[in-house]
Amino acid sequence: MKSIHKLIIAISISMGALVTSCQKLDIPPTNIFTPDIIFGSEAGVKSFLATIYRGLPIEDFKYRPDQGFKTGGNDWENFFNSASVTGEEVGPFGGMDIGGGFGYWPYGDIRNVNILIEELPKHADKLGQSNVDALLGEAHFLRAYYYFGLAKRYGGVPIVTTVQDPGAPLSELQVHRDKEEATWDFIGAELDLGYQMMNETNELGRANKYAAAALKSRAMLYAGTIAKYGSANFVDGQARAEGFAGIPADKANGYFTKAYDAAKLLEGHYSLYEKNSDKVQNYVDLFLKSESPENIFVKQYSIISGTAHSWDATMSPRYMTANALTRSYPTLDLVQRWGNLPVTNSDGTPKRFNDRAELMQGLEPRLLATVYFPGATLRGLTFDMQRGIYPSFSGTAAAEVAKPANSRSYILSGDTKTLYQGRMIIGFTGPWTGGDELTRTGFYVRKYIDAAKPISTVDLNRSEQPWIDLRYAEILLNRAEAAMELGNAGDALTVINMIRNRAGATPYTSIDIDKIRNERGMELAFENQYYWDLKRWRIADVVLNNARFKGLMPYYVFNENKYIFLSEPELFQRNYNFDKKFYYEPIPGGELGKNPNLYPNNPNY
Amino acid sequence: MKKLISRILLGTTILASSACTKIDNYDGPNASFEGNLISSEGGNLLTSQGSSQIRLEQISWSATPSPQEIPSKFDGTFKDSKLFKGTYKVIPKGGAFWPLYDTLTVDINKGTKHDFTVTPYILIKNFTAVLNGKTLTLKYTMEAPIGAGLPTIIETQPYVNNTKLVGAGASIRDFSDIYKKAINKEWADMTDADKSVTIDIPDMLPGRKFFVRVGVRLNDSFKSSNFSEIIEIDVPAN
User: Fold this and answer.
1) Which top-level group of life is the source organism from (chain A) (predicted)?
2) A172 touches chain B (CB under 8 A)
C-alpha cells in the first residue's frame, strides 16, 4: 500500500516537473548575440564593423597577390608583393605567377555589410538618427570597397544587396553575373551614398566622406580606362560578347568625368605632406608620420593584437636588422623612370667614382627616398653594395657586359670573408646570388622603412607603421589622368607639378599622357598600384612580353682605386610574360560548381 | 585466448567479405580522341609547345562542364587516350590560325578520330639555314593566306635548340630570343622587304648539332606564333 503512495507521489512530482518545465523555453538564446545586443549600442556596432574592416581587400604590406589578404600574426613574407612581377622589383616569384589571382570571393563579408545595412535603421531609437545615417554611409563605402576588389579582378560579378535567406529556393540563391558596366556603376553609386551620408571626420583607421570620394576617383578611373583601352586590346569570348568582361568604349568619358569630379571633392580638405624643408627626409616622413595631412584612409597594425607586419625586416638586409630575410629588390628599370643615371661617359666607358655615394649627387629627392642606393646609410651602417673587383678595367661598359661571364676579368666571391689583396670582394649588403638575404639588383627599398628603429628591434612581425591605402598624391594623379583623358591638359599640368614640386623634381612646362603615367609610376612605386595600372591601361602584355629586367652592379677597380657601375641583367635572371587572358581573372572553379549562373567564365579560361 | 583470436578472425572475415559488395560500375577513362590539325594550305599545322590545344567540354556529364584541353604535338597531331566515354563539344584553339567559332559535338568512344582544318595566319616559305663558318644565316619569306583583318604582326625570331623539340619556350635564349626582330605592323602596311627576313646568328658552337626553326608572332588573343619546319644543322668541329 505504502509503495502505491510512493508511486503516486513520484508520478505527480514528475508530471508537475514536466508540465512546468517547458513553459520558458521560448526565450532569446542567452549564449549568442542577437541583433538587439549588437545594433542596440555603439560599442556593439563598432565590434561588428571591426570584422568588416578586417576583411577589406586592402592591398597592404601583407597582401600576397597569389594567396590573398593576410590578417594573422605571422604573415611575415612581405616581399611577395605585386611589384615583384611588374618590373618595379624582381625576386620571389619565378615569373608572372599572380595572373590567375587567388580566387577572391568575399560574399561572406558582403553579407555582413548587407546585415548592417538592413539592421541599422531598425535601431535608430537607441543609436540616434544622425549616427545611423553616418554608419549607413560607412556601410555603403565598405560594400563598394568589397565590390571594387571583385570588379577589378573579374569584371562583372553578381550584385547582392540583400541578406539572402539560406532556406530560399536554390534558383534565388544562384544569382546571375551582372554586366561589368553595371558593377562599376553600382560601385560609383554606393560611394556617392557614402559621400553624402558620412561625416567629415572619423576615427583613425575608419573611413570618412572623403575616403568615399577618393575611392570613387580611383574606381571610376579604372572603369574609364577599361572602357577606353579594353575595347582596343581584348580577348574574344562569350563573356565579352555578353558584357560581363568589357565596357563599351563610348562609356569611357562618362567614367573619366566621374573620376575627375570625385577627385575635385577633396580639394581644400587634404594636402600634400610638406612639413620638412629637407626634401628627401620629407618624402621619407610622409609614409611614417601619422599626422600627415595627406593620409585619407589608413590601416593600422599592432604587435599587442598580433597584427604587426614585417616590412622593415623583409626589405633591408640582415646586416641592418635583427633577423631579416629579403627577397625582392628594386630594378634599374624602375630607377630609370627618373631618367638615365650618370654612370657612363659620352665615349661609352664607365664613369669613375671616388666613392659609391657620389652617384646619388644631383638625383631627385623622391628617388633617393624611394630606393636605397649604394653608398646610402641606414641605422648607422652603409649600403656597401659591390658585385666584385676588377683588377683593372678598360673599354666600354656595353662591350664588357656583352661578354660571356667566363671571359670577363672580374673577381667575384661567394661570401664576404673572401678578400682580394686585403679588400672585400663583395659588400656586406650584396649583390650576391647565394641566398635570400642580399640584393640582386644593386638596390633596396626605402619607402616605408622606419630608419629610427634600433637594429635590435627590427624583426619579423614587429613593424607597426600604418599602410596608407588612400593618400592625396594618388587622388591628384587620378585627377590628372582623368583630366588628360578628357582633354583638359591645363589642369593635368598644374596637378602634376604640385606633385613634382613636393618631390623636389623640376616642374614640367608641358604634359602628355605618358608623362602622367610615368609620374604615377614614380610616385606610387611599391604601393601595389602599378600591377592594376598595367592591367587597366591594357599594356601589361606589351610591357611584360617575355620581359627581363636590369640591375646596377657596382664594381671596385683595383688599380685605379675607383668605383664603376655597370647596367647588367638582374641576378635572378627572371622572365616575365603576361598572357592576355590575365586582364580578367577566372571566376573561381568552386563557385562555378556551386552556381552555374556564373557562366560564362571570363575569356580563355 | 584461442577463442578470442578466432572471434576476432571471424569478425574481420565478416567485415572484409561484406565491405566490397558494391562494385564501381562506371567505365574507367578508356575512351580516346585523336586526330590532326590540318592546315588549309597543305600539310599539318606546325605548332610548338603549348601553342595550340583542342578544348573539350563533356556536355553529357554537366550542362556547364569545366573545360579540359589536349595540347597539340609539334607535328600538328593530338591524342588523349584517357577520356571518359560521352558526348563532348570540341574546338581547336590557341594556335596562330583564324579562330573557329562553331564547336563540334562528338561522341567520344574507343579510338574516336577527327581531323580539324584550320587556316593559318602566316605561312613561312622558302626557309633556308646556311652555315658560313660559325655564323648561321636564316632566310625566309612570309605569306598570308588571308590578308584582310589579320592581327598585327608583332615580331619574328629564330628558335635554336639542341633537341628536336624546338619552338617557343624550348630554345636556347642566346641563339634565339636575342635575335628577335620587332615588326609591329599591320599586314597591309608591310612591304615586300618586311616580309622577307634574313637573320644572322653568329658564334654557333663548333662540333654540335642544332635544330633550327623560325616563327612569326601575331597579336591575337593568345599572342601565338606561326612556325616554320625544323632544319637540322651540324656545326663542324674546328
Assistant:
1) Bacteria
2) no
